[in-house]
Predict the structure.
Amino acid sequence: MIPPNNKNNNNSILAIMPKLVKWNKFRIKCWFIEMD
């Protein structure tokens, strides 16, 4: 992951966030499909 002493820590997190959001949406879709 990201080293804690990285000066660009916040920027890296902001760059990763959209990917996490897409991944979470993908997981939720799969979860709903399993529920059907």
